[in-house]
Design a protein that fits this description.
The protein folds into two domains: 55 residues, no CATH class; 202 residues, MetI-like (MetI-like fold), CATH 1.10.3720.10. 77% of the residues lie in helices and 0% in strands. Helix 8 packs antiparallel against helix 11. Pfam families: BPD_transp_1 (PF00528), BPD_transp_1_N (PF19300). Keywords: Cell membrane, Membrane, Transmembrane, Transmembrane helix, Transport.
Length: 305
């Protein structure tokens, strides 16, 4: 097992190098950011002076080599717009994104797991039909539309929740619901299908014949054996929440990575784009590695080679 995890850890720098190359190439071909950094009345001499100062006059391979050497030292340069360390700005915004992603995932699990279990225990019943219908609806509704509707209903009309920003626990409720609805729908469907399959297994019938309590059969035998695929999708969805909360953060003016990345793309702020994508990629890779660790913890029968 340790050999497997060591090989996985050694793969991370290679993957990050490939991701860094892709980011650099995409930003490189997008055009010269100097034009966005200077006012419209800037002279050609001023533009060329800034290009030389930033190293944009050098060939592609030299620019990429300088980028990689700085990357190894953890230096992504300074933001073209804000004039501060790009990685420092990204790490400053990261906790807000993690807070929103965690709140969304907790909300999704609290709703999805009980709903999926109850649906599996009483298939084709009223609760099951409600849960499956709600799951289909949750997957179909676009996040941006749901966020706007929640603002109109609960913030503008009912005035129960703040419209946007941060400051209290109420500020995170609507963004968490917006971001967690699709995740909750996915987890509900997965818990239901896995529980339905597990409940038909021979060891469940054996447990029932021994007279074990219904709660023991459901949670210790059925639910625990269905956890591996549920954990897989949960962690993958957590990674998608961290990296895919851009629109939700913009709608609710949540001061996380989403707003920062969108503004950086608009301004062609290369250091911030590279730092934000790099940090997000590191978190996703670590979450995938954590999935493998949890697999072995939950099911010792799983072997790694």
């Amino acid at each position: 097992m340790w050999r497997y995890f060591t090989s996985r850890l050694l793969q991370i720098p290679i993957v990050l190098l490939i991701i860094s190359l892709m980011i650099f190439v995409l930003v490189y071909v997008a055009g010269d950011p100097v034009a966005m950094m200077l006012p419209a009345e800037a002279t050609q001499k001023e533009i060329q002076t800034l290009r030389i100062a930033l190293g944009f006059d050098q060939p592609f391979y030299i620019q990429f080599w300088n980028y990689i050497t700085d990357l190894v030292r953890g230096d992504f340069g300074e933001s073209y717009k804000y004039g501060v360390s790009a990685i420092g700005l990204v790490l400053e915004r990261l906790p807000a994104t993690l807070e929103l992603a965690t709140a969304s995932m907790i909300m999704a699990i609290i709703i999805a797991v009980p709903l999926g279990i109850i649906s599996a225990l009483k298939p084709n019943g009223i609760i099951d039909l409600f849960a499956t219908g709600l799951s289909a609806l949750g997957k179909a509704i676009p996040n941006f539309w749901l966020g706007i509707m929640l603002i109109l209903v609960f913030a503008v009309n009912l005035k129960m929740m703040p419209v946007s920003g941060t400051g209290s626990w109420k500020h995170i409720i609507l963004p968490a619901i917006t971001l967690g609805t699709a995740v909750s729908a996915e987890i509900t469907r997965l818990v239901r299908s896995n529980m339905l399959e597990i409940l038909q297994q021979d060891f469940i019938r054996t447990a029932r014949s021994k007279g074990q309590k219904k709660s023991v059969i459901i949670f210790r035998h059925a639910f625990r054996n269905s956890l591996v695929p549920v954990i897989t999708i949960t962690i993958l969805q957590m990674a998608s929440l961290v990296g895919g909360s851009l629109i939700t953060e913009m709608i609710f003016s949540w001061p996380g990575l989403g707003q920062l990345i969108i503004q950086a793309v608009y301004d062609k702020d290369l250091p911030i784009i590279q730092a934000a994508v790099f940090v997000t990629a590191v978190m996703i890779l670590l979450l995938n590695l954590a999935t493998d660790v949890l697999y072995r913890f939950l099911d010792p029968r799983i072997k790694y080679s």
